[in-house]
Design a protein that fits this description.
The protein has 195 residues and is mostly helical. It has ten helices and no strands. The protein is elongated, with a radius of gyration of 21 Å.
Length: 195
Amino acid sequence: MAEKRRYTQRKRAAGREETRERIVEATMQLHEEVGPRATTISAIAQRAGVQRLTVYRHFPDETAVFAACTSRWLELHPPPDPAEWAASEAGVAHVRATLRAFYRYYRATQRMWRAAHRDASEVPALQAPMAAFRDHLRQVSEDLHEHLGATEDPRLAITLQHGLAFTTWASLEAQGLDDAVMAELVVAWLEGLTG
């Protein structure tokens, strides 16, 4: 009898986890399609095929469901890690490789980034994840700064941060530039500062 109870409990736990995953997946889809601002708990429930109360059983509020969505989306779409090519590329070549990798990443994930940037100021649940990503980009830009010889010119750090930003990529993409050309443009900005 105890074995049957354990089997039932495991089955129930698996069902709860499956429902939770459907809710997170529905949230990710809606964020890409209509944006976080227009994503309601009712819409999430409908997309996941559950009741609103079920969403709240798994997530106490919008912030919790958005945090789970962000975490899962970043697992599926991790940003580039410049450490992967740091040993093979140095100086400007490392910066160029990093910019190209981020620009390819932005191109592949632009629907979510466009929606997140558009809605972040109006959706409190998005502000912490967006700040965390900006911090990540700041750390990447500091690493790139070191690869360029760590000059003290503050304009170099500002240019690196600007070059890594999604909004910069989106602005240059709207001008019809491809990722390689964008990276070369930012490298030219940097070379103008470093001589």
